[in-house]
Amino acid sequence: MRPATALPLLRPVARGARSAAARSHTMLSTEADVQRISAVGILADVGFGCTKLGVGTACASPALVADGAHSLADVLVGAVSYGAYAAARAPPDEEHPYGHGKIEAGGSLVVGGALVATGAAAAANAATMATAAPDVMTLPAMTACAGVAALSIAGKEWLYRATLRAGERGRSDAIVANAHHHRSDAYASIAALGGIVGTYALGVPWLDPLAAAGVAAVVAHQGVHICRDAVDQLLDASFDPARLEQLRDAVSETLGPEYVVERLRARKAGPGIVADLVLSVPAGLSASAAHQVGEHGAVALRWAASEAGVAVADVQVHLDPSDRQERDTRLAALPSTLEKRVTARALRHPRVRGVAHCVVRYDNTKVLAKVDVILPDAMTLRAAHGVAGALRRSILRGVPELHEVDVDCELDERRARTSRRGVGRGRHTSCM
Fold first, then answer.
1. Which of these ranges, 8-17, 233-242, 373-382, has the smallest mean pLDDT?
2. Which end of the chain has fewer CB atoms within 10 angstroms, the N or the C?
3. Is 164's pLDDT higher than 60?
4. φ and ψ at 240, to 5 degrees?
5. Stretch 281-308: mean pLDDT, rounded?
6. What are phi and psi of 314, to 5 degrees?
7. How far does CA 76 lie from the centroid of its chain?
8. Angle in degrees, 0-180, between the axes of helices 335-347 and 381-398, rounded to the nearest 10
9. What confidence category does residue 29 fall into, taking pLDDT thresholds of 50, 70 and 90?
């Protein structure tokens, strides 16, 4: 790899080492913020829920009762969200080598399901109270209900902003879902407030149950949206295509034109993503050099993702030779299998004393083999050429998967050492 290409990769590594302490402090600060806002949200939901249910029941306001049930459901939502956040960040273990990231998606699914159930219950309650035909709300009752709803709107909007900020810093879908849940509660309280005030101002009793039905619809819709996102993550839906394209461009720019990014795909896994990177490298590149290309590609991907605010949990790199023919769907035999067959075929020749080396390689759609055979020390060069030609024809007949065979001849080392002291190895000649 060119030195100029490698340098951009060394800088983020060095910079990351220098800022390790800062990242650790930021991580601890983020976790503390998430824990704090989750606790505040749960306490606020208990207070709002009990107050709404009590005032709504006393003043016969189905809209406020439905809103109160929604707030109490938020207690479960907040607890599940924080539990999923904490569990998803547990390190991989022997039973879960890929980590626990999907616990967060499971937590979001529970949150969404709770919202759908709450919306259904609120709608049923609104229908029951609408059929009871309640009296028009009095001024004191309207004032109490409207005051509670207005206080809930302000409090829930503050919780939405604070929870969203903490969830985005912690890269937590469950905490972000809980933030939007706080916002949906604020919308529900706005609907409840409108129904309460409208019932008193217009003297139409059914406006309050209608507002309750609107609250139920908002809650259920939010739940369905959260459930859909959670199911997508559990089913390994693709990560944002636009962001993937940016990451792909960053890796291509780092590696240069010699190494092509054939494919990059990723899926969400809790706070981060799991990526599969396929690189095309020259067919003649050694395994160790190709491994270095893959390592540079993985580092470039992680660095570009970090710059874009995306955490990478794992990168799997696959390397393809640049002259691979995708249209040829036949799977060639394993090199070790072919090498054993070539060796066995060579040893069948009566003049072959042994096989020193055999290697199989793949060139485009062709399979090539090179075999070094050991011949008697007294054999002439002409005879050795004859043996090599016979071996080549025999191997091609016995191993039809091969397209070409290169046969090299070595003279028997044992006899060469006894007849020529000081010579540590037999004579070698390329025969075919």
1. 8-17
2. N
3. yes
4. -50, 115
5. 86
6. -160, 150
7. 28
8. 130
9. low
For residue 26, give every residue at least 6 positions away whose Cβ sits within 8 Å of its Cβ, in sequence order, or none.
Answer: none
Question: Do residues 153 and 197 lie in contact, with contact meaning Cβ atoms separated by under 8 Å?
Answer: no
Cβ proximity of 368 and 406 under 8 Å: yes
Rounded distance, CA 192 to CA 332, Å? Answer: 69
Q: Which residues pair with 357 in a beta bridge?
A: 372
Mean pLDDT of 35-44: 87
3-state secondary structure of 363: strand
Q: Are strands 404-411 and 366-375 parallel, antiparallel or unpaired?
A: parallel
Mean pLDDT, the chain, rounded, equals 79
Burial string for 109-142 (b: 16+ CB within 10 Å, else e) reads bbbbbbbbebbebbbebbeebbeeebeebeeebb
- Alpha-carbon distance of 61 to 59, in angstroms, equals 6
Residue 283, amino acid: A
Residue 311 phi, psi (nearest 5) = -85, 140
Distances (CA, A) of 262 to 162, 321, 326: 41, 11, 12
CB contact at 8 A, 320 and 262: yes
Q: What's the rounded Cα separation, in Å, for the pair 73 and 52?
A: 13
Look at residue 418 in the predicted model and tell me its pLDDT. Answer: 46
SS3 content of the chain, % helix, strand, coil (to 5): 65, 15, 20
The number of beta carbons lying within 10 Å of the beta carbon of residue 201 is 11
How many beta carbons lie within 10 A of that of residue 37, not counting itself? 23
Side-chain-facing half-sphere of 178: CA atoms under 13 Å? 37
Structure tokens at 129: 């109270």
Q: Is 330 helix (H, G, I), strand (E, B) or coil?
A: coil
**Mean pLDDT across 147-163:** 90
Nearest to 105 by CA among 81, 78, 77: 81
Query: What's the pLDDT at 430?
Result: 53
Q: What is residue 326's predicted lDDT score, i.e. its pLDDT?
A: 47
Residue of higher predicted confidence among 195 and 142: 142
Please, where are the H alpha helices in 203-240?
A: 207-234
At residue 5, the pLDDT reads 42
**Euclidean distance between CA atoms 167 and 150, whole angstroms:** 26
| Confidence category of residue 424, pLDDT binned at 50, 70, 90 | very low
403 DSSP 8-state letter:
S
Q: Is 257 helix (H, G, I), strand (E, B) or coil?
A: coil
Query: CA-to-CA distance for 301 and 250, rounded, in angstroms?
Result: 7
Residue 306 in contact with residue 171, Cβ under 8 Å? no
Closest CA to 157 of 21, 289, 44: 44
